[in-house]
Amino acid sequence: MKSIWTQTTKIPGRNPLPGNKKTEVAVIGAGLFGILAAHYLKEQGKEVIVLETNRIGSGQSGYTTAKITSQHNLIYQKLVNTMGEKHAAAYAMANQQAIRDYEKLIDRYRIACHFEKKDAYLFSVNESEILRQEADCAARCGIPASFVRETELPFPVHGAVRFADQAQFHPLEFIEALSGDLTVYERTTVREVKGHEIITNRGVVKAAHIVFACHFPFVNIPGFYFLRMYQEKSYVMALGPVKELEGMYLGIDKNSYSFRSAGDTLLLGHGSHRTGKCPKKNPYEEMRRLREHFYPNTEEYGRWSAEDCMSVDSVPYIGHFSGVLADWYVATGFGKWGMTTSMAAARIVTAQIMGRRTPYDEVFTPQRFRPKAAASTFLSHAGYSAAGLMSGAMTKVPRCPHLGCRLVYNRMDGRYECPCHGSQFEQNGKICVGPAQESLPFIN
Questions:
Q1: Contacts of residue 52, Cβ cutoff 8 Å, sequence gap at least 6
Q2: For residues 124 and 71, what is the distance between their CA atoms, to the nearest angstrom?
Q3: Are 43 and 181 in contact (CB under 8 A)?
Q4: Which residues pair with 251 in a beta bridge?
Q5: In 10 A of CB 77, how many CB atoms?
Q6: Nearest one of 149, 174, 170 to 160, comparing CA atoms
Q7: I need a surface site. Which of 69, 71, 303, 355 has the fewest CB within 10 A?
Q8: What is the pLDDT of residues 121-167, one digit of tens each?
Q9: What would the DSSP string read from start to end of 312-329?
Q10: 215 contacts 59 by C-beta, under 8 angstroms
Q11: Residues contacting residue 266 through CB under 8 Å, at least 6 positions apart
Q12: In the chain, domain spans
């Protein structure tokens, strides 16, 4: 399963950790957030090493639609209602600043990564009032958002919210360029973290500050992220040749689609669901039906799935890993918006390690308590996890080594998935996505 990003970019390999090391900052994970954080920390004069269990950019960073946008579905109405307009505006501004920071970084280092400024749209073929309300909330939060009636999509819409001056890029080209002068050790699996010591399969790293940039934190206690997050799958198909779209599009209707061009290649997205709760209809087949109707003279260049960590209140966890561990930091729960949030997170975590505050700390702090925003999702997540754990207690069923939940087979990707926290395994038992750290001994 290769995306158009992994098909077109091969980042040169790095050596594994050569043995025990000591450093100021250790970053666990060489995805987009990890590389950005390492870059900004090095820029601030910190000695930084990055530990990666596989290859640079080999995780979810290479399986995204790569939209850099503050348009995060119907989020701003929810944030205003559950967090208040002040926090909602801070969330919006953190993401708007991230777009500007990408542009500055790409211009400064002349990174060739197909970076383009484009408007982002939320659309519906059924309703308009909720989109008008979203446009109003987003504008009040400081985003250049407006309601429109017309789009360039090949079908009529009832309305859309236009977010001006957003962006898109090739994520692996960007990561390859930015990671060039960083110290990254690949094929180095972190087994355990104790205080300031990181125990890997290649040696022990001692660091004054430790940044968890590993998608879903594998350390369960403290932090308890396994209680506060779950994962969702979504599917993408690359079609072409298709006339390039001037904007990026996301539908809000049930079973809707997303659209984004990469030159004359169309990235069509569909089929979001909780990992381990597979839909009855195959998302790839659904996209092929849409292709036959609207893009009949195109070829299928590739297809792949992405997995996203979802927080229970729709806001990422960025900052100190736990209230009792001052020198551990984390960024996770990005939802479907990891490109923009990775930049915002890198800026926040870098500032905190340097002893500075940002205007966004309070919004994203992992130590927040917002029952109004999180209660219903938390209870739903707890129910799925409890069911998975009870099923895992049965004998002779594949169980996730993370916490013992029963695994479910995803026929679309040909993988076993954990419905509790989203770990994924190949059919031969090899682990491909955490928070589990171990492969399965066998699959029956």
A1: 14, 29, 30, 34, 58, 184, 185, 186, 187, 188
A2: 15
A3: no
A4: 123
A5: 16
A6: 149
A7: 355
A8: 999 999 999 999 999 999 999 999 999 999 999 999 999 999 999 99
A9: TTSS-EEEEEETTEEEEE
A10: yes
A11: 238, 239, 240, 242, 245, 259, 260, 295, 298
A12: 4-64+173-226+314-371, 372-433
How far is the C-alpha of 177 from the C-alpha of 11, rounded, in Å? 9
Angle 85-108/338-353 helices, nearest 10 degrees? 90
Question: 335: Cβ–Cβ under 8 A, 6 or more apart, which residues?
Answer: 72, 308, 309, 310, 311, 314, 316, 341
| Residue 402, both tokens | 């993370």
Could you identify the residue written with the tokens 């195959």? 282
Residue pair 48/162 in contact (Cβ under 8 Å)? The answer is: no
Residue 272 identity: S
**4-64+173-226+314-371 architecture in CATH?**
3-Layer(bba) Sandwich (3.50)
Tokens standing for residue 83: 């967090």
With beta carbons less than 8 A apart as the criterion, state whether 325 and 208 touch: no
**Which token pair is 115?**
């970076």
Which value, in Å, is the radius of gyration of the alpha carbons in the chain?
21
In this prediction, residue 444 carries a pLDDT of 45
**159-193, pLDDT tens digit by residue?**
999 999 999 999 999 999 999 999 999 999 999 99
Tokens of 100: 């500007």
Work out the mean pLDDT of the chain and round it to a whole number: 90
Query: For residue 25, what are its two tokens?
Result: 């900052």
